[in-house]
Protein backbone atom coordinates (compact mmCIF):
# COMPACT_ATOMS: atom_id res chain seq x y z
CA UNK A 1 0.00 0.00 0.00
CA UNK A 2 1.25 3.47 -0.86
CA UNK A 3 2.03 5.44 2.34
CA UNK A 4 -0.02 8.37 1.01
CA UNK A 5 -3.04 6.09 0.81
CA UNK A 6 -2.61 4.62 4.30
CA UNK A 7 -5.49 5.33 6.67
CA UNK A 8 -4.98 8.15 9.16
CA UNK A 9 -5.49 7.99 12.90
CA UNK A 10 -8.98 9.12 14.01
CA UNK A 11 -7.57 12.47 15.20
CA UNK A 12 -4.22 13.01 13.45
CA UNK A 13 -1.74 15.76 14.29
CA UNK A 14 -0.44 17.66 11.26
CA UNK A 15 2.71 19.79 11.10
CA UNK A 16 3.31 22.10 8.16
CA UNK A 17 6.79 23.61 7.95
CA UNK A 18 6.97 26.75 5.83
CA UNK A 19 3.28 27.59 5.47
CA UNK A 20 3.93 30.75 3.45
CA UNK A 21 0.72 32.38 2.27
CA UNK A 22 -1.49 29.52 3.49
CA UNK A 23 -2.39 28.10 0.08
CA UNK A 24 -1.26 24.59 1.02
CA UNK A 25 -2.42 25.03 4.63
CA UNK A 26 -5.96 25.38 3.31
CA UNK A 27 -5.53 22.38 0.99
CA UNK A 28 -4.11 20.24 3.81
CA UNK A 29 -6.98 21.14 6.12
CA UNK A 30 -9.55 20.27 3.49
CA UNK A 31 -7.93 16.81 3.08
CA UNK A 32 -7.45 16.31 6.84
CA UNK A 33 -10.36 18.19 8.46
CA UNK A 34 -9.98 16.65 11.93
CA UNK A 35 -7.25 16.71 14.55
CA UNK A 36 -4.82 19.45 15.45
CA UNK A 37 -2.62 21.25 12.97
CA UNK A 38 0.45 23.41 13.50
CA UNK A 39 1.51 25.57 10.55
CA UNK A 40 4.88 27.30 10.93
CA UNK A 41 7.04 29.76 9.03
CA UNK A 42 10.20 31.69 9.89
CA UNK A 43 8.76 34.90 8.45
CA UNK A 44 6.16 36.71 10.59
CA UNK A 45 4.81 38.33 7.40
CA UNK A 46 4.03 34.89 5.95
CA UNK A 47 2.21 33.86 9.13
CA UNK A 48 0.14 37.03 8.81
CA UNK A 49 -0.70 36.22 5.17
CA UNK A 50 -1.59 32.64 6.08
CA UNK A 51 -3.79 33.87 8.94
CA UNK A 52 -5.57 36.24 6.51
CA UNK A 53 -6.11 33.47 3.93
CA UNK A 54 -7.53 30.92 6.35
CA UNK A 55 -9.35 33.53 8.44
CA UNK A 56 -11.89 33.91 5.63
CA UNK A 57 -12.88 30.28 6.22
CA UNK A 58 -12.64 30.29 10.03
CA UNK A 59 -15.24 27.55 10.57
CA UNK A 60 -13.07 24.93 8.86
CA UNK A 61 -9.90 25.91 10.70
CA UNK A 62 -10.67 25.16 14.32
CA UNK A 63 -7.73 23.32 15.81
CA UNK A 64 -5.23 25.07 13.54
CA UNK A 65 -2.41 26.96 15.26
CA UNK A 66 -0.03 29.29 13.42
CA UNK A 67 3.44 29.98 14.82
CA UNK A 68 6.64 31.71 13.82
CA UNK A 69 9.73 29.57 14.18
CA UNK A 70 12.61 31.47 15.79
CA UNK A 71 15.78 29.83 14.46
CA UNK A 72 18.70 29.90 16.85
CA UNK A 73 16.71 31.33 19.75
CA UNK A 74 16.42 28.04 21.59
CA UNK A 75 12.91 29.02 22.57
CA UNK A 76 11.11 26.92 19.98
CA UNK A 77 8.01 28.51 18.55
CA UNK A 78 6.07 31.62 19.39
CA UNK A 79 2.67 32.84 18.25
TrEMBL record:
<dbReference type="InterPro" id="IPR041698">
    <property type="entry name" value="Methyltransf_25"/>
</dbReference>
<feature type="domain" description="Methyltransferase">
    <location>
        <begin position="15"/>
        <end position="59"/>
    </location>
</feature>
<dbReference type="Pfam" id="PF13649">
    <property type="entry name" value="Methyltransf_25"/>
</dbReference>
<dbReference type="InterPro" id="IPR029063">
    <property type="entry name" value="SAM-dependent_MTases_sf"/>
</dbReference>
<protein>
    <recommendedName>
        <fullName>Methyltransferase domain-containing protein</fullName>
    </recommendedName>
</protein>
Amino acid sequence: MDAAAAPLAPSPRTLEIGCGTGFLTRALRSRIPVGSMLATDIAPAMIARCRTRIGAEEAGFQGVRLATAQPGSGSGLCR
